[in-house]
Amino acid sequence: QELRLPERFLQTYIQRNKEEERRERERGIKMGFNNKKRKSNPSDGNNNNNNKRIQKRDFKKSNRSNSWDKEPKGKRPARGGGKKNNGEGKYGATEYVRENEHFEAYYSAQKICSSDEDFANLMRVLKTDLPSSFRINGVGNFAARIKQRVKNEFATLSGAGLEDIKPPKAVEWYPDSGAWQFSYSRLQLRSVPQLKSLHEFLKSGQEFGSITRQEVVSMIPTQFLKVEPHHKVLDMCAAPGSKTFQVLEALHRDFESYDPSFGSFHADAEGGKAELSAKMPTGFVVANDADLKRCNLLTHQTKRANSPCLLVTNHEGQNFPVIKGEPGNAQDDFKFDSILCDVPCSGDGTMRKAPDIWARWHGGFGNGLHSLQIKIAKRAAQILKVGGRMVYSTCSLNPIENEAVVMSLMKATNGALTLVDVSKELPDLKRSNGLRDWQVWGKSNRRWNSAEEAHENNEKVVASSMFPDKEFLDTIPIENCVRILPHHSDTGGFFVAVFDKVRELDPEIETQIENEANGNESKKSKTREFSKFKGLGMAEVKCHFEYPSSSSNGDSGDQIKLSLTVEQPKPPKTKYSRDPQDGTLLFLNAHGQDQSRPGRKGFDGVAPVNSPDVVDPINEKYGIHSLQIEKNCVTRTAAGSKPKRVYYVTPNLRQYIAADTRESLRITAIGLKVFERQNLNDDKDSYFGADSKVLSSCNYRLNQDGLFLTLPFMTKQAITITIPELLQILKLRGLALVENEPVPDGSKFTPRPSFTDAETRKHVESCSQGSLVCLLRDEDVQKLNCSRSEFAITCWKGKTSLNLLVSKVETEHLLEKLKAHTRDVNDDA
Q1: What digits encode the pLDDT tens for the residues 208-248?
Q2: Catalytic residue check, 113
């Protein structure tokens, strides 16, 4: 909230801040926390070889001596063990005590197991390490080859060191053997010779994007979400992104069978566009997380999906913005068809992979996030479309975070949501039903019968919503909830509840949820009184003073009365720009580029790419007019500057951004990168020696990630090559265009061979310098039984060479795929 205050108030505030910073800095220097290195001087006692730790937190619960380790820098073994000692050195893996009597007593009282024997099995499995698991991405031919390789090569592993360990096995409930589980430790993967190929497969597959390392129970919620390609999906607490990746796969499943070929939209424009419209998802995914650093991790994880349907945002889940579009226009429906609420929780279902929880666990371990979980779930219910599906999940066993939240949500929504019975879905998944009764404990590891009793004993976190309302529970099918226990299938613990929305929320409930999001909860603290003005932006505060009358004779009871009035001019009516042909919203104005707004610092805005100076040269160089860059492309570069990178977004995602006229969304990533600006020097480009005069007409190069999208629209800058030439380009990172490729003075660069095929030479000569695409010839495509776009690569044509513009990781992936196709051809022969 910004207020127009007198200049003297601002100057006083700034001066006080400077004084506080100065005092903090001085205090830090006195305590030895100054960042500058002090020179060693034995005479004044400042010897760097004998620095002492001076804070108590450095020694709490530790037996280390009060001095720095004198071991020379660089000689200390890596955490978890170096290559030589394999984890057995001084800094080896910590041995955790996997016992907690309060944990055992608590869950025994909750009766989460059907019998004492079943509970004993649960406790036995909880004290063991969690098996590793991975999921095979995609449903195409390459995914099928990976499945076959896992079945043939890894599922039958045996030998010395593996006698008591089961080989990898398919997760029985996951469709089409798409997920696998194995019990090898990290030490075994690195040291046992028979596991070397599996170890390499896991490392390279994760980098390539062909597999995702993901816990088995984490794969469950998206299976219940039932995502369709036309759905608008929100993942409210998305990081680190494995579930978002699953959602994107479901969204793109029809696109897997689409084979875009060069210029297909040019030869038959209407037919090609119709095919793309039928295959490309019309829905989109908004992946949100409250932590900005985790949003960056989320972006990195989902980047492998190469989806133009993805938007990554940074908001607290309970405060996620509501985007409504133009009032009265039925076409602007931006409520979500599917919402995944994998909410923050205590995580005691993850004890097998996070054994440090054993020592920290207490009876109130799951109470702290209960109210936040309810708020997130209620916000999701508000922005869910009628007929849509919401999945609530936690990695906790605790009914306070599970059934109690479900009960509170069903109460709050007053029949707008139904709790879905999913017992017939994923029939091979072993599960338990939701509880109808549970107990509430506190940090003191004792049971409370009411919130009032807990408050009297200083357990302030305990809320009335945690306690089971037996009368209300009799009216809802709480047993439809799904609880996964670790001993069911040798996994972690998990909880899932599936809701369908059957009608809109009551208006008073909508208002209550909005007030909670805006901070307008009724609290005693007077500091909350001005929260009703939150979000007004620039406003004018008028102060009105009432002085005591002159007849009061200065009585001590008379006081000066002060009243405040907040005035703000009405915002101008928002104008929505629409496409005259189909009536869809157009994104014409920059979004979120004012970093002076609260919460905007550090966020790059989003701007449309509609300048003719940018669009026309790209269209002319690549013959790509029908892609409609000016309509569907955006950039993160500041408005008014030439875009550094150009991202493509699908039409419905474009409309979602355009409808956010209040710029409520804090966007961290959007769309799929399709073009990138090439830096030019005076007489040549900064990479491969192309003529800058030739490149000056269009200095944007194609991006490999977005090639499947741009390729069918292109009518220029593409050549066909043979399989041997493709192999050479991938292995040597390019080929020469002249007989003797020049080598810079003092360089260790080895000259590369040139193209030997006359037809290829002719194609290369026909293309202008700069970015182009290399494709396999039709006869080679048929020979390898692959799609033409599968081995399309972006290259850069300079004066003397053709160089590869594909990352090393992606290059290795392409070589692996080419080797697999060649092996299949040889086997068939």
Answers
A1: 888 899 999 999 999 999 999 999 999 999 999 999 999 99
A2: no
